[in-house]
Design goal:
It is a single chain. With 124 residues, this protein is an alpha+beta fold. Helix content is 39%, strand content 10%. It starts with 6 loop residues before the first strand and ends in an 11-residue tail after the last helix.
Length: 124
């Protein structure tokens, strides 16, 4: 099995080698805190009680993961995904034609790749 060479922690001045590109354990927590502070809380981003009720209604009406369905698999959805990232646009956030039901693995994969999720900036 081929293994990847270690890389240096991205934190300025830190020379710790890490197995995956990014930050060492010490600096990962600091970096994540900074990302979270810029991003705001879930409630500040619109994911409040109103969203929870709308999400629940949408999942009741569309209970299966649309991506699994495309792959010929029947899987319950747990997440209502914004097809096009709303980036704070309230109209796009509440536009139900921009919503799709996804299972958590498909949502996480989409968020990490298409949206540049988990605190990273998008490649696009």
């Amino acid at each position: 099995m081929v293994t990847r060479a270690k890389s240096v922690c991205r934190h300025a001045g830190c020379g710790v080698l890490v197995d995956v590109s990014g930050h060492c354990d010490k600096h990962a927590a600091i970096y994540q805190k900074a990302v979270d502070a810029r991003r705001g809380s879930a409630s500040e981003r619109g994911y409040n009680r109103r969203w929870q009720k709308a999400r629940e209604t949408f999942l009741n009406r569309s209970p299966l993961c649309v991506q699994c369905d495309r792959e010929g698999v029947v899987q319950a959805a747990q997440v209502v995904d914004h097809i096009v990232a709303h980036k704070g646009d309230a109209a796009l956030f509440w536009d139900t034609s921009n919503w799709q039901s996804l299972c958590k693995p498909h949502h996480d994969r989409k968020t990490a790749t298409a949206d540049g999720g988990f605190g990273r900036t998008s490649a696009a």
